[in-house]
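Just curious: can you write whichever protein you like plus the matching structure tokens?

***
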Amino acid sequence: MCLFAFMCFLLLLSSFYLIMANSNSSSSMQQPLCHDSESSALLQFKQSFLINEYASGDPSAYPKVATWKSHREEGEGSDCCSWDGVECDRETGHVIGLHLASSYLYGSINSSSTLFNLVHLRRLDLSDNHFNYSEIPSAVGQLSRLRSLNLSMSRFFGQIPMELLALSKLVFIDLSGNIDPSGNLLLKLHKPDLRNLVQNLTHLKLLYLSLVDISSTIPYELANLSSLTSLGLRECGLYGEFPMNIFRLPSLQVLSVRYNPYLIGYLPEFENANPLKVLFLAHTRFSGELPTSIGRLGSLTALDIHFCNFTGLVPSSLGHLPQLSYLDLSYNFFSGQIPSSLANLTILTHLSLSSNDFIVWTLPWLGQQTKLIFLGLLGVNLTGEIPSSLTNMSQLSTLNLGENQLSGQIPSWLMNLTQLTQLDLEENQLEGSIPSSLFELINLQYLYLHSNYLNGTVRFHLLSKLKNLTQLELSNNRLSLLSYNSTNATFPKLNHLGLNECNLTEFPDFLRNQHELEWLSLAGNNIHGTIPRWMWNISRETLIALDLSGNFLTGFDQHPVVLPWFRLRRLYLDFNILQGPLPIPPPSTFEYSVTRNKLTGKIPPLLCNMTSLISLYLSSNNLSGRIPQCMANFSKSLIALQLGNNNFDGPIPETCTVPNNLRVIDLSENQFQGQIPRSLANCVMLEHLVLGNNQIDDVFPLWLGALPHLHVLILRSNKFHGAIKSWHTNFRFPSLRIIDLSNNELIGDLPYEYFQNWDAMKLTGGDTLRYMQANTRFEMPGYIMPANFMYSMTMTNKGMQRLYEKVPDSFTAIDFSGNNFEGSIPTSIGSLKGLHLLNLGDNNLSGHIPSSLGNLTQLESLDLSKNKLSGEIPSQLTWMTFLEFFNVSDNNLTGPIPQGKQFSTFSNTSFEGNPGLCGTPLSRACGSSEASPPTPSSLEQGSTSEFDWKFVLMGYGSGLVIGVSIGYYLMSWKHEWFVGTFGKQQRKWIRTERMGLRS
């Protein structure tokens, strides 16, 4: 018994030792403490930075290094392997990972940092901190074991170091998003460049370089990275052709090259096994058609190709991608029907088809995408009423149905879309009043109802319900606004407000408390008197666009030296009755227009500080004096300069003395003297030069013929003299379509060689009516502002001086009238088959009318009056079936007047002063020696009123290019500029939120 008890004791003792041994063994296998040298290096690294909560943007950010403690400090935390963000090797205790993303770190870093003593690091993440515009230290090359490197969004600056290319084990690298607060790119990859990086880091799986200045083509070697799964090259300044083989990388799942506007490319035929999940090509020049094989991308979840150049039909196979949740095809050139197969995409959360050339009337399948958060159908030709099927989309946050032909009233059921933050119904045909239920959408941030036929009264107190509203557009309806001054209701803080043509008679009082406005437009109202003093205090730090055009403003309650909005980019004060000196915008201004006012005095020198100007419109005022020479500083940025119809004098200042973008110069109807400055030859982008009605004393500026893009040259009513020199191959005027040299003192023969070589005048216009304009755009946070400057000019047409507020780009004209040209009319004019207007009247031309003029089948106005022409009127002129004005009066023509077609519409005034002519409409019959007195009807026919719309519609199929262009000028012009039909400029904006630029 005792032996048994003893044996049991030994067994228990053996078990105890076994347990203890296992315990000791297990203890010996626990993760060792980190090395003192690495702990010290980490603490020194921590001490080199400040903790600043503004250094990180992630809402979940927190200071990870705050818990790091040294061995001397009591309590837990002395083992660096337990520190927040530190990863150690379980066997060696070496620090192999440092994960300090969004840790509030602020300060500079260089190669002496103790960070680079951690030579065992495999993973390093310092993203979303603020390294105070330090360069990436070259010592990063010492971390030879590094496999993952993330320095994104951390304010690093300068060239990416060559030493980084030595990290041959890297499989993940993210250097994206290093930009300053203004959006300027901080990092660049030039030397080394992208090709060097790809050739050295051959094991990469993820490569993110978005918002790094690369400024190169995409190297074909990228297609050799067979392990690559994600490629992010957004907004890198890439150009050239995208290598097609990158699409065929066997593991590629994410591809983003958005916002590289000079990158061209095409989509390939996709294979079934393609693993692509995300494809972002927006804002590039990718073109061609979407291949039907895109339906093979069964894993695709997001496709964004907005603002590209894709054409053709949208393939129905796109509706066979079951994983697709994000689809943006907007701002392309797709045509045909929108495929009904898109109804199958039931997990879509984002769908935008805006601004294409679709043939759409209704979308019966709309409403089946019940998970949609964003729906963009701007400008897709929708008709009928707002589809009631939208009520199924209860999660909808953004609804954009603008620029369609929707009619009827705004439905009250929209209030059921309670998640709406943006509602855009602009530029439709909606009518009736704005339903009060719309003001129950308390989450609304953007409300755009402008350019419809809405009527009734809007009571501003209703807007106080929309506490989150930041952008409101009610312009161009038939609304009246009932302002309120109640202090009990809180009006929402707006950043965009458009109240054009809303029958306002004064500045709304609620504006006094609007301090966050970026865009304010009150154009086309009935606001009288001075601009109140309190206006200078609203939104001083935020306002970027102000439009007060088309009112009855007389001046300023208190005239500031410089307008106070230091961020202002766009200022329109035109079509008022402003008096006094020229208002001076801040130097930040890009566009300034104050035309058609009553401003007086000289251009103040302060205007010369506006070196960022894109357009300057001061025309139709009473400004005087000389143009300051310092305005030549504008040349670098200026596109359009209009100073016409003032009282400026002296010489035309030197222009284009530095590289420039000038396309429009209009100095007409002033008192400029001297010669045209030869520096204009440096304006290589110039398209429109108007110097008419001045006192310029010069010979014909043959040297302007070297300008490759010059379309319009108006030198009318000056003192140009001498003969036009012989044509020269270096001065060809290759793009010239309109030339007016009338009422000068030019002599000699007509320049027949010019007529032979003015090739642009030989082209006939297309079917689509477009207008000559200069297009550009500039971007501001939240907006892309297109700037489309319509060309304007004055020409004599049908015996009257006409103002063309818009010039059709197919319009072609020659006016050499009122000079002393002699000799015959060159037959070479007959080769200019695109001509619409030809005026050679009031010269000393002799000889016969050339029959070759009959080849000018597009001609609408022909004036050969007051010359010494002889012989008969060629019967070939009856071939000109668009001719609606014809004048050969006061010559020595003889014989019968051709009959039929257009000639049956001309009055006797077209032929009077030619005793040898006979036949209708003259009273002198051919073969008769006496003329009978003119009939009352013929006298009445000869009296042509300046306001007679017969000019537009007369004749056999008369062309309307000239008729329509001049007809509108005969109407009242008070607000013609504003409604967007006759204005000098299309004033429009594109909100970047609409286009998804945030992602």
